[in-house]
Amino acid sequence: MLSRKEKFEGSRVQQLPLYQVDAFASRPFAGNPAAVLVLDEWLSDHDMLAIAEENNIAITAFVRPNGDNWALRWFTPTMEASFCGHGTLATAHVLATERGIAGDFAFDTLAGLLRVSRDEDKYALDLPSLPPEAVMEVPPIIADIVGDRRQQAFVTTRHWIVVLESEEAVRGFTPDLEKIAMLHPLSFVVTAEGERHDFVSRHFAPGAGVPEDSVTGSTHSTLVPYWARKLDKNRLSAFQCSRRGGHLECEFDGDRVRIIGKAVTYLKGTVQLP
């Protein structure tokens, strides 16, 4: 009679290597965690979402070879994401440091072609510039969320962005997650000019299963062009002042945004997929 262990080992279980990376960080327990699985072929959407839900962190990235490039998809615990900066950086870090793949990376994604280059211990993400559109009449729900601290509000196809009066106001902002979840599929961002950095921000997406994102690379595709024009400078230092926090070096070049940061591998494991 086979033991339970022998039955398990004899079954057709897929064993998939998994890495967890802290992106936009130079040490563990900082920046934004992302899980990365390197595949030969896609799993089913159901399985990828189930793995992301099981991981229960902001993003799980799935990557596979795609000709000369790599195909990359991102999942939150509740849905497939259309754009993710920190998951892209984490994926490049895994391919470079854990898989030993040299050179730059080109990722085919739902957000278009994203490139990542490596310079020693830093990674530079080349992202599209997605400037926001100013809103003259702010919906009542936005006014309810921020009260009378709002200076200006913007909207994109992915976010509501509200400019507050100071870094202190951004750090002290208390989100009403129930109301913010009602904005889904748009997420919610507060930002202000910084004290030690050019600008700071926080990002909330409870409707996508991420109450507060630790460091959001994709949001800076919009924040960088806004602050570059506001401050009249093309090189900016940004800080996302979540509990974990993360520093981003940013460059604005018209229709492109470069975001530079570090990453560190926190965990290596194996997913047992029946």
Describe this structure in a few short sentences.
The chain is an alpha+beta fold and 274 residues long.
Report what the structure shows.
The two termini are 22 Å apart. This protein has an 18-stranded mixed β-sheet that branches. The protein has 274 residues and is of the alpha+beta class. It has helices at 4-10, 45-55, 85-98, 140-146, 167-171, 177-181, 220-231, and strands at 14-23, 32-38, 59-66, 69-75, 80-81, 105-109, 112-119, 122-128, 133-134, 152-155, 159-163, 187-193, 199-205, 210-213, 235-240, 246-253, 256-261, 263-273.
Q: What attributes does this structure have?
A:
274 residues, alpha+beta, 18-stranded mixed sheet, 7 helices, 22% helix, globular, disordered N terminus
Q: How many β-strand stretches?
A: 18
Molecular shape: globular
Number of helices: 7
Proportion of strand residues: 35-45%
> What value does the Rg take, in angstroms?
19 Å
First and last CA, distance: 22 Å
Instruction: Name the structural class.
Output: alpha+beta
Order of helices and strands: HEEHEEEHEEEEHEEHHEEEHEEEE
Oligomer: single chain
Query: Biggest β-sheet, characterized?
Result: 18 strands, mixed
Mean pLDDT: 93
Low-confidence stretches: 1-8
Task: Tell me the helix content.
Answer: 10-25%
